Amino acid sequence: MKPFIFILLLSLTAKSCDETKHIYVADHLVDCKGVAPQKCMLIKGKIVDEWTTFYDQIEGFEYEEGYEYLLNVKIKTIKNPPADGSNLKYTLVEVFEKKKTDKQITLNNKWKVISMQGIDDLQIRPTIQFDADEKKISGFAGCNNYFGSYDPESIQLDFSKMGMTRKMCPDMTVESAFKNHLRNVSYYKIENKVLSFYSANDETLITCELE
């Protein structure tokens, strides 16, 4: 029995070195330097994370620039890896998403709100304008004008420190909802020329189109 138990323990130990993980892959490659200059993918574990340079390869994954991916990969620890190599081996399990990105359209535009969570009839259309050069945000909230700053290099947005004029209007419903949603925005996506703002729980709070 003892040899059997020993073999079983070895098997369980080997399995514990493997794990599967979801990773996002960016739609473009970046210059990087390993043993020699090369092109590397950018990856992250969560959509709200910042992109990090990925120096390895994912076995079975055929990358195509211009597409953003969500993958399920198996990560295996390699014993005695080569001196110039990683001690981890990545193998593709499944491609969950492959989305073509629109490189012509960026956040750095003026946008008009077309829908908001909780508002069925959006008769007043708030706007939001991003100025990447000045790192500023401004727009119309439904009654008042607002203004603030942001980081053009980050996918995460923080609207909690916005300034605003103090005019009162007969109907403040849209502005109140807009302000509340902005405070809860965590990140954004641009797909099919539509800008969407999401909460940390991945709820769609606001969608916009180019004005």
Describe this structure as you would to a colleague.
By secondary structure, the chain is mainly beta. It has two domains: 17-100; 110-210, Lipocalin. It has two helices and 15 strands. It has helices at residues 2-16, 173-184, and strands at 18-25, 30-33, 37-44, 52-54, 58-59, 67-77, 88-100, 110-116, 127-131, 136-140, 145-149, 163-164, 187-191, 194-198, 204-210. The strands form two sheets. An eight-stranded antiparallel β-sheet has the order 12-11-10-9-8-15-14-13, covered by helices on one side. Strands 1, 2, 3, 4, 5, 6 and 7 form a seven-stranded mixed β-sheet that branches. It is elongated, with a radius of gyration of 23 Å. The N and C termini lie far apart (75 Å). The relative contact order is 0.13. Mean pLDDT is 86; it is low at 1-16.
Task: Provide the number of structural domains.
Answer: 2
* Shape-level CATH architecture of the largest domain: Beta Barrel
Shape label: elongated
Element pattern in H and E: HEEEEEEEEEEEEHEEE
Termini separation:
75 Å
Q: Which runs of at least 5 residues are low in confidence (pLDDT < 50)?
A: 1-16
What is the overall number of helices? Answer: 2
Q: How would you describe the oligomerization state of the chains in this entry?
A: single chain
Strand order of the largest sheet: 12-11-10-9-8-15-14-13
CATH topology of the largest domain: Lipocalin
CATH class of the largest domain: Mainly Beta
Query: How helix-rich are the residues, as a percent range?
Result: 10-25%
Q: Could you tell me the mean pLDDT? A: 86
- State which percent range the strand residues make up: 35-45%
Largest sheet: 8 strands, antiparallel
Radius of gyration from the CA trace? 23 Å
Pairing-aware structural class of the strands and helices? mainly beta
Beta-strand segment tally: 15
